[in-house]
Amino acid sequence: MKFDPSIVQAAYASPIGPMIVAATSRGVAGIWFEGQKHMPDNSAWPQQPCHPVLLQAIAQLDEYFKGTRSAFDLPLDLQGGTAFQQSVWQALLAIPRGGTTSYGQLGQRIGRPAAMRAVGAAVGRNPVSVVVPCHRVVGADGSLTGYAGGLDRKTALLQLEGAI
User: Fold this and answer.
1) Model pLDDT, residue 2
2) What is the pLDDT of residue 145?
3) Residue ranges in the chain modelled with pLDDT below 70
4) Is the sign of the CA dihedral 35, 39, 44, 46 positive or negative?
5) Residue 54 covered by a domain
6) Do both 47 and 18 map to the same domain?
């Protein structure tokens, strides 16, 4: 992934582990659990905990984890992904809180029903955990499958949302 040079970051202590929240002038560009798969090298990104987009994202994450927010209302900057990845990430945004979908169903939604592996790879590289709800994607049989932040966190997020 390519990230805009204007990207800044802040730390966020979520109830299920420390997170990094990143933003550009266009919106939230990343939310990762520390150490998760596919997390970019953020060592050169300046810390700006008072950045307005970061403050807004952290406030909404707090509300989400407290159970008082069911949907996020944040500007997103997903331009670092390929056109295909962006289409998958946009499709993830349509999965409602408390709902789940399979990789195959997600592929059908974007008009690529045979691209389950590519869809899975795009889901795994989603840069905006929780807000772009990749945790809501499950196996065709409903089983909990991989999650870049770890299956324990995926389980916790789905339980918080009432999906399991």
Assistant:
1) 84
2) 87
3) none
4) negative
5) yes
6) yes
Which residues belong to the active site? 134
Task: Provide the token pair at 118.
Answer: 């590519």
Q: For residues 18 and 58, state if they share a domain.
A: yes
Q: How far apart are CA 149 and CA 35, in angstroms?
A: 8
The kind and range of the H/E element at 11 are strand 8-14
Q: Which domain holds residue 130?
A: 83-160
Side-chain-side CA neighbours of 74 within 13 Å: the count stands at 33
Count of all residues that appear for the chain in the document: 164
Report residue 143 as tokens. Answer: 């089983």
In a domain, 43, yes or no: yes
Contact call for residues 57 and 21 (beta carbons, < 8 A): yes
Query: End-to-end CA distance of the chain, in Å?
Result: 32
CATH code of the domain in which 150 resides: 1.10.10.10
